[in-house]
Amino acid sequence: MADPSPLTSWNIRTHLADARIKQNLTPKRLAGILGISEQTVRNWEKSATIPTYAEMIGIGKELGMGEEISQFLANIARDKLSLNLENVPRYNALGLAKAELHYGSIWKYESNLVPGILQIREYDKQVLQPTEGMTDEETEFGADFKQERQEEIKLRSDPYRMSIIMGATCLYDLKVMGAAARREQIEAIREWNSLPNWEIRVMNGPSNLGNPFDVYVPGKSKTAGPPFAYVEIHDRSWCIEELERVEGYHERIKRNWTRSTYLEEFLDAERNRLA
């Protein structure tokens, strides 16, 4: 049976290490709680070995990881396949949320919708829910998840760089929101852009960027995993780990970066249209 891909292995060890640290437990203390050796815990956290399905469920309970994350990691531990998370779209979201907290250089491109990390709750209700036909429960679940991601990434203290290109349509289509919510969304985007390690630009012309995608590069981060690209099409989303393909996406977004417009410059030029 094949081993998990490097990115999948990274998800296991990083979720485990982060949850352990959050509970203020040393590897030795966690080992004592679980009734295993300290070396076993250390092996898990460096991907030398992988917990079993049952072990992962037990670890999740002890570390307060929540049912969804515990099941996500337990399924990986059970299957031990060279999957790269695309079999279950929700796994992509969980993996990306963790990557946002560890990778040194993150690039995002969105053509039509405001990137999730920038969305306010009213965007989910007034734009995503009618566009995607979601129920109230699904909408609230998505908004809660994004809010949690936003709160966690704001706590990052290590050096990293977030570079985002939005298609102009992302902003023009805010017209479907009420005036107050529209202003709130634009101000939220501005606030993110004002962070010292963030820069948001707008593509307001022809480009070869294509469908939405992200690129995650380790940079100088000591806790990042392998470089990868996350790509979306209509019926599928997946994480690409082949280095040559990742480099292709990275070069594409960097080339278009120089052709995109600074956020504040775009907002100033289009202030009447976006009012």
UniProtKB/TrEMBL annotation:
<dbReference type="Pfam" id="PF01381">
    <property type="entry name" value="HTH_3"/>
</dbReference>
<protein>
    <submittedName>
        <fullName>Helix-turn-helix protein</fullName>
    </submittedName>
</protein>
<dbReference type="Pfam" id="PF19054">
    <property type="entry name" value="DUF5753"/>
</dbReference>
<dbReference type="InterPro" id="IPR043917">
    <property type="entry name" value="DUF5753"/>
</dbReference>
<dbReference type="InterPro" id="IPR001387">
    <property type="entry name" value="Cro/C1-type_HTH"/>
</dbReference>
<feature type="domain" description="HTH cro/C1-type">
    <location>
        <begin position="16"/>
        <end position="72"/>
    </location>
</feature>
<dbReference type="GO" id="GO:0003677">
    <property type="term" value="F:DNA binding"/>
</dbReference>
<dbReference type="InterPro" id="IPR010982">
    <property type="entry name" value="Lambda_DNA-bd_dom_sf"/>
</dbReference>
